[in-house]
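haha ok so turns out i had the wrong file open the whole time. this is the CORRECT one, sorry everyone. sequence first:
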Amino acid sequence: MIRKYFGTDGVRGEYGVSVLTDGFAYRLGCAMGRWLLKTDAPRMIVMGRDTRSSGVALRDALASGFKAAGDFQILDLGIVPTPAVAVHVRSCKACLGVVLTASHNPAEDNGIKFFNSNGLKFSDDIELEFEALLDGVEEVDTFDAVEITEAIDGSAEYMKLLRPLLSTNSLEGMKLVVDTAHGATHVTTPSLLREFGADLYVLGDAPDGTNINQGVGSQCPGLLAETVVNQGAALGIAHDGDGDRVLFCDANGKVLDGDVLLGILGLSELKKGRLIDNTLVATMQSNLGLDRAMKGAGGQLIRTDIGDRYVLDEMLRSGYSLGGENSGHIICADVNPTGDGLLCAIKLLSILVEEQKPLSELQSCVTLFPQKTGAIPVNAKPPLEEIPEIQSTLASLNDEMGESGRVLLRYSGTELKIRLLVEGENESLVDAWYDVLETSVRRQLV
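then structure:
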């Protein structure tokens, strides 16, 4: 079954215009509350949010829905990064964690993410159960305000978890530029990096409820790169709005590719003997150069469907310790089993300190393959495996590529489009292979 409301990372949309209204949040709270009553978990719900002005109203609506379903205690952590909610759910043994955020989206959007009692995202099947219950909750015109307990320091448990990862003065003398996107990390990341002794120049740290991700953050790295060069900094760090992903640039202002970041982290852990089963987990979108780098060092790369939740599913199923997406969602499961931008930054900074090398030099560990991608509008989405010509084309290309290239063909999850990706060691061959694939797709689907 296809989920009606939940996407790859919770429910998201323009606040008050799309499905994401206060009324919907109330109904969702009721549905979730009814589902939770079937479990024997403690009746505590932990909530956090990013800096969007709509967050408080959505919090109140959800809380009212939870209370309408049952006698739940609700703890509000306030404005905190998404991974902080996951940590707090585990530390206080809550039955549910809720984050009100639209991540890297503009301020007019918002969203709702959930963590289970283990601080992990729910499976697709469980989200379908939520949706079935949600459809059974009646619409209401108004709902009552309910009692919410506000935490004194909502990020305390999160900071306590990360603080031991570097010593107090380990970053002394290192100048960093940090962009917190006017979002949820505007206090936590600068605070902890200063504890480690870093000299910081901070961007995007003045949220006003309407400026999250506005020309700043991981989606807009131009200002970060320019500032790093102008400030003579060693490194630039940029978060998205809720802090579950991160982007870096080196001292020259060059943005670090997400697959190279995965390679630096994975190869470092492999070298230290800390990479479980010598395996790094990534998605189908990761570059073939990452496979080559891991294999050359005696490790391996395992791929999953696109989405950090599927990366984590594989990590938990097989016990792997490190994985992520090339978008900057990195999961260091040995510390916190969810995407965590600050944790990733600390891991990378610790490598810089240990290796005594600049980021520009560390990047040479992964050589990315030439890649060509595209998206073609289609009239429908028939199963690709049932289209003989496309299957024949894929088989022919795979035979020709061998281990020196790969092809990925998949439908968009949200649009009437099909996405094409071709990689190889030789750019002219990649172009030729892509043309063959595109011709076949257009002949059969357009």
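The two ends are 26 Å apart (CA to CA).
again sry for the mixup
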